[in-house]
Amino acid sequence: MNMITNLTELSGDGRLAAPAGLAGEGSRTLRAGFIPLVDASVLIAACEFGFAQKEGLTLNLVKDVSWANVRDRLAFRQFDIAHMLSPMPVASMLGLGSNPSPTITPFSLGRGGNAITLSTRLFARMRETAALPETAGALENAHALAKVIGELKARGEPLPTLGVTYPFSSHNYEFRYWLAAGGIDPDRDVKLVVVPPPMTSDALAAGAIDGFCVGAPWNMVASERGVGRIVAAKQDIWPSAPEKVIGMRPEWAETHPETVSRLIVALDAAARWCDRPDNHDALAEALADARYLAAPVDIIRRVLAGEFNLDDRGNRRIIDSYFAFHAGFANYPRPSQALWIYSQMIRWGQTDLSSAGMTAAAAAYRPDIYRLALGANVAPLLDDDIRVEGALDGDRFLDGQIFDPLRMDDYIAGFAVKSSALGGHAGDEI
C-alpha cells in the first residue's frame, strides 16, 4: 500500500503559504544559537566575514552546549534562528520529543562532516576477531564489529556503549544505519547514549563510551589523541544526506518575510565563500577561535580539506568534498530528504507511518521560502522536490537500498533490521 500518491498531497495542508512579498522591516539583529562544530561554518562566516552585514543584518551568535538546549531556546523565543540537526524540524512538525514546538527550515547549511569513531581497544579486537585489514571500508568495519559483538555475547561480556548527540539526529540515524547494514541491532546489540559533541573525545578516552558518531572536528580530535579509530564517514552511508539546517519558528518566518529573505541571501553568499578552498585558511582561523569551536586550527584546516588521520598510527584517508557548503544544491531544503528522515524515525520506533505524518514531515523543509529569496533559477526543478534518493552513481546508500518517498511502507518493510515495536516513542529516548 502506498500512503501518498503525488506531490500535491505532500505540499498541501501541512505547509504555510510562502510570504507574499517584502515588507520593509529595516535592519535587524538576529540572536542565533549554535553548537561548536565545523558544520556551523556558513552561519559563522556570514557573521565574521560581512555577508550578514551586507544584507542589513547583525548576527548575535550564542554558543550552546546541547541540541536540547538549542531546541528549547528557539521554542521559548530566546533565539530567533538556530543551527540545528536536519531531523530536528521534522521531529518538531511531527510533535516528537520532550518539548515539541513547530520548527521549519528554509535553508540547509550543507552536507557532510559526520564520522563514526570507535575506541582503539574495540577496533583492535575487531582486527583480531575478523582479520580486518587496515584498509577495510565502512561496511567491512560494520561486519567486523558484528563478529565482535557475537563474541561478547557468547562470553557474557558487556556490550559496547556508543554515543550519539541527540535522539532526533543525523548521527543517531546514520550510526543505526551503519550498524544495521552490518547485521547489528542498535536496540539490542549495543547501548546508545547521548553525549554532547565536544565531550565525545574525552568520554572515549575515559572509557565511558566505546564509540561515537558526531560531526567534525571531534572525530579527528579523538584519532589524533590516540583514543579512537575512524571507521566510517557520512559519505559512506549516504552522500546526499542533509546535515545541519537553519531552524526557525513558522510564525516568526511568516511575520518577518524580508528578514528571512535577507538571511537566506547572506547565508547563500557565505556558503559559496566557504566552498572555495582558497578561503579555508581564513575560515579555519575563525572557527578555531574560543568564541566558536575552540579546537586546534590545524585539525580544522585538514578536516575542511577532507584529510583524515584515521588513528595515531599513520593510517590516512582523503574524502573529496567531505564538506559541501554550497555545491550541488547543498543548501536546498529538499522535502524528499525530510521524508527519508521520517522513514528512519518510523524504522526505529519513534513514530508511526501515516498520511498526516508524511505531510507534516515534508512541511518541515521549505523550498518555497528558499526560492522566494534567491529565485527559481538557482534552485532545482520543482519536480525534484520529492524524488527517489540513492539511485544515482555517487549517491548510493551503504546497503544498496533505494528510497522512493511514494513507497514509504515498502521501503521500511524491506529492512532486515528494524525496531520490533514500531511507534510509541514520543520522548527523547534513544
From TrEMBL:
Coiled coil ranges: none
State the protein's name: NitT/TauT family transport system ATP-binding protein
Principal subcellular localisation of the protein: membrane
Keywords, ordered alphabetically: ATP-binding, Cell inner membrane, Cell membrane, Membrane, Nucleotide-binding, Transport
Task: Give the matching InterPro entries.
Answer: NrtA/CpmA_ABC-bd_dom (IPR044527)
Tell me the Gene3D superfamilies matching this sequence.
Periplasmic binding protein-like II (3.40.190.10)
For the keyword Transmembrane, the answer is no
State the CDD domains in the record: PBP2_NrtA_CpmA_like (cd13553)
Q: Does the keyword Cell membrane apply?
A: yes
State a single Pfam family of this protein.
Answer: NMT1_2
* GO cellular component: a single term: endomembrane system
Q: Where is this protein found?
A: Endomembrane system
| Listed GO MF terms | ATP binding
